[in-house]
């Protein structure tokens, strides 16, 4: 049994699933559009939490939030289900596939056999679409992959019931009703306002302030933690920013693509101009990653070089502060 | 980032034969997508992270051999877990898992408890008890 479903590769899994499910239901919505309307862009340092024994930074909204906000703002109704019992989770999935309904699943990455080993960490907020079943293999459209793939019943159960932070608990979701026409205009405005609010939030570890916070921590790491740990931490910052799913530059390029598309749709020249500015800021994030990689490549630990990358971050934060103030006024 | 600047460096993605999607602008300033095979700054960061994990595994193995910790800690590191993740897989409190790291306590664990760990690591109880196997 195979549902006629078209796989489109995306940069990020959550946007990709939403975009692909929308397209399947006859609404052409691009990945950047989903990301922008769902207020995906963020910067947040998560104190106390450690992943791979290093601090965690996220450049995007919490798992599931992009989806939730996108649906709410466009008037799409979503059905979301979580399960205690894997058997029940499987039965509900099969039921949907029988009804020709492709569904989104939240899964853990560690046991995703088609991922290269090096990328298999205990990260539980990955998303995919299941669009059919052949024998005992589920047909999988994983948005970050170039092509579709498949998983056995057992393999799928494992990733649906992965444990640890943000454990998916079989989380399954799919759209159940759509408005007659998608009102993207109002949704775009809401999405942008929300993002500006988050990025300019008066909270020390969020948005622009969060970037300054990390810059401050980076300055202290070599002395406080020693060279080895400081380099490990810095490497993790770069990985969070650039690893699969961000589309480059810690999601800044996807956001710039959204602003360009939104500017054209709304006939708002300012957004198109701001898109260019966001691209330049994205380039600065890339420069930061490049500079940081020089530090951990050479395993050098001159406090100078740490200060230098921290300066780059402070500079980016200053630019983003101005940027989001302008963006807020532009709509 | 310009489309022609999208990096095409070697990376660990090659083994799975896939390229990731990036967003970049074309010559007319229009946003478009482009595939990337990898980017050196990322590869170095990932390689370092893997190296760090391998060092942790080797260290844990050493301490098991010296009798300083139980094989549970070794397998935990081998599976890139930390105490929190392992605890949620086996359904124990974290302090209990840490207690099971003590070789003297580990020796006395019931088959039922050992089986929970063996299942989490997808190995047999014998393999759990003897890491050289």
Automatic annotation (TrEMBL), chain B:
InterPro entries: Cro/C1-type_HTH (IPR001387). Residues 107-128 form the HTH cro/C1-type domain. This is HTH cro/C1-type domain-containing protein. It comes from Aequorivita iocasae. The lineage of its organism: Bacteria, Pseudomonadati, Bacteroidota, Flavobacteriia, Flavobacteriales.
